[in-house]
Amino acid sequence: MKPVASSFKPRLFGSLIFALAAAGLPAHALAQQKPAQADLEKHKTTPGGQYEPSLDVLMGAGIEIPGRKPGDPVMTPDEFRTATQIYFERCAGCHGVLRKGATGKALSPDLTRNLGFEYLRDFINYGSPAGMPNWGSSSELTEKEVDLMARYVLLEPPQPPEFGMPQIKATWKVHIPVEKRPTKQLNSLDIDNLFSVTLRDSGELALIDGASKKIVAVIKTGYAVHISRLSSSGRYLFAIGRDAKIDLIDLWMDPPATVAEIKIGQEARSVETSKMKGFEDKYAIAGAYWPPQFVIMDGTTLEPKKVVSTRGMIYDTQEYHPEPRVAAIVASHYRPEFIVNVKETGQILLVNYRDIKNLQVTAIEAERFLHDGGFDATKRYFLVAANARNKVAVIDTKKSRLVSVIETGGQTPHPGRGANIVHPKLGPVWVTSHLGDETISLIGTDPAKHPESAWKVVQKLKGQGGGSLFVKSHPKSPHLYVDTPLNPEAEVSSSVAVFRIADLDQGKPQYKVLPIGQWSGIAEGQRRVVQGEYNKAGDEIWFSVWNSKTQASALVVVDDKTLSLKSVIKDPRLITPTGKFNVYNTRNDVY
Ligand code: DHE
Question: 583: helix, coil or strand?
């Protein structure tokens, strides 16, 4: 069947076309020809390209097929459902749920119809060096699926439903009311040295005792659970799934168990709790990717108190963005404020929770595509990556204002919460690695004693390669660790690089490679080694060896002083372990 849209005249432009033209092909043949292998190489998916959000939960949200318009490509309801699923899983992260553009270009029908079916099909097939993955030629999508997606983007985008207070309230369950909970810790766990480990693909978390390395409990959570955060006292643990479900776990119970749950949207990644003196354990906040909103809740019951939309203007162009996602959220230690990072508008919102009825929000103009970040060692300054802009924005949480926006000098910074170390010559610095290359950037964070270094990239180290997601150190550690789980080389993705902090003032600081994947004793799979996390004492660091759901995974514990293998935690229940959150370090922002 010939799609109706193929009658639209393809407008031939873009780097793929230039590459073909350079190869001497006539313009009319361009859309149909396979480019040369050398040109295709430039279109390959990068680690950064692979790491875009997959909004796969949205499909379950009751998507309506938009009304057909004259000239629409023919598509059966089944095809439409398949295409919507593919779009949310693979495309919406960059192009937006509503196809208004995010890090990728807008794909609204007024634009796609101008491009035409053939152009779109070839673009989806071969990608572009500007970052569009080569979905077809990499065999990620079949020829039929590429054809389907080219027709799909010519249609009006379907709009997933909103999720306001009535829907949020309907999902809220208190399993154990506060008055029926223990009044003192009932178990004998060393709570501060517990690790909450994300078991991504089983939708669970494992609580592991830091000393014995024994699994204390495995607790059901939301779909593809993402992160854990702790209440200020350390008693309550909050886990958020990609389906925006939060589980509130009481660590005083024997064994620790879920006491309340709620869904704050359809898709989410971040949760945090109030840390300011006088507000300990009082509030929780979670941010959603869809609908674009954050929700403030009671910290002990999850009762939703306030839903705030993040739809609004992009900070610099002052244009409306219909779906600015909420990325990292941290809690200020200086003011009763949550620091909410809004990706697409580039605004950092300081949400004052002193008076929720008369909510005061300070909107700071920062940079677009804010993603993840953490505090400096004093916890006064918050540094967040604007990843697609290769920048880091710095907020002074004491004065509630922007300090600086810094070019990191690498491609796509991805710090996690970053690492704070004291450089032998340059004083306190905060570190980020990068998804796109091997650069590890050190940013000065001490304007009082090292004003010449403050808010500048004072040193760039070279790590093992691109595909890094997390750096880690500890105030007591002599080392800085850099993972590379998304590096295409198996040897690099299954190991970590370690720098000795004392050597950083030498000409070209060298790193040592720890073969964590090999140490795990697991022979199968990709053995991606991801996200170091210290124990409370700061003398050992845990890494996840992250395999697929059907393969063995493990946690590997390294002696921080000797950089030798200390222990391997293996258990059939450890399915796809990724993030690890030590209670003490997480509640006190130690990293
Ligand atoms: Fe994450 C933190 C979003 C994929 C493991 N991740 C975060 C944060 C955001 C985010 C916004 C910051 C939360 C905060 O501090 O409040 N992550 C996203 C995505 O949008 C993305 C790119 C794709 C997606 O569809 O979700 C994504 N993340 C991943 C993974 O594939 C990882 C490696 C494995 C997994 O479990 O899914 C992963 N993300 C993590 C971890 C943290 C995190 C471990 C917390 C790090 C920390 O030290 O605090």
Answer: helix
Q: Write the DSSP symbol of residue 335.
A: S
Which region, left, alpha or beta, applies to residue 278 given φ > 0 means left and ψ of -120 to 50 means alpha? left
Find all residues with CB under 8 Å of 58, minimum gap 6, and list them. 88, 92, 97, 160, 266, 267, 290
Going by CA atoms, what residue is nearest to atom 47 of ligand 1? 416
- Is 417 near ligand 1, meaning CB less than 6 Å away? yes
Rg for the chain (alpha carbons), in Å? 24
* Test site for ligand 1: of 226, 273, 275, 326, most ligand atoms within 8 A of the Cβ: 226
Structure tokens at 76: 């059966």
User: Is 327 close to ligand 1, i.e. is its CB under 6 Å away?
Assistant: yes
Task: Evaluate whether 136 touches 144 at the Cβ level (below 8 Å).
Answer: no
Distance, CA of 266 to CA of 80 (rounded, Å): 20
CA–centroid distance, 497 to ligand 1, in Å, is 21
Contact 197, 580 (CB under 8 A): yes
70-90 pLDDT, tens digit each: 777 778 888 999 999 999 989
Say how many Å lie between the CA of residue 185 and the centre of ligand 1.
31
The predicted structure's pLDDT at residue 40: 67
Q: What percentage of the chain's residues is helix, strand, coil (to nearest 5)?
A: 20, 35, 50
* Distance from residue 269's CA to the centre of ligand 1 (Å): 7
Q: Which burial class, exposed, middle or buried, applies to 351 when counting CB atoms under 10 A from its CB (0-12, 13-18, 19+)?
A: buried
State phi, psi for 161 to the nearest 5 degrees: -65, 160
Residue by residue, what is the 3-state secondary structure of 481-516? Answer: EEECCCCCCHHHHCCEEEEEHHHCCCCCCCEEEECH
Ligand 1 mean position, distance from CA 349 (Å): 20
The Cα–Cα gap between 132 and 45 comes to: 7
**With a 6 A CB cut-off, is 54 part of the ligand 1 pocket?**
yes
User: With a 6 A CB cut-off, is 3 part of the ligand 1 pocket?
Assistant: no
Question: What number does the ligand 1 atom closest to the CA of 225 have?
Answer: 36
Q: Are 375 and 329 in contact (CB under 8 A)?
A: no
**What is the reported pLDDT for 34?**
59
Average confidence (pLDDT) over 511-520: 98
Provide the annotated active-site residues. Answer: 91, 94-95, 132, 371, 414
Q: What single letter denotes the amino acid at residue 291? A: P
Per-residue confidence at 59, pLDDT binned at 50, 70, 90? confident
Top mutation candidate among 54, 195, 372, 529 for ligand 1, by most atoms within 8 Å of CB: 372
Separation between Cα atoms, residue 408 and residue 397, nearest integer Å: 21
CB 106 within 8 A of CB 99: yes
Distance from the alpha carbon of residue 327 to the mean position of ligand 1, in angstroms: 9
Helices (H), 127-194: 143-152, 165-171
Q: Is the C-beta atom of 226 inside 6 A of ligand 1?
A: yes
Provide the pLDDT confidence category of residue 25 given band limits of 50, 70 and 90.
very low
50 lines ligand 1 (CB under 6 A): no
Whole-prediction pTM value?
0.91
CA nearest neighbour of 303 among 164, 165, 162: 165
Instruction: Identify the residue whose tokens are 């553009």.
Output: 101
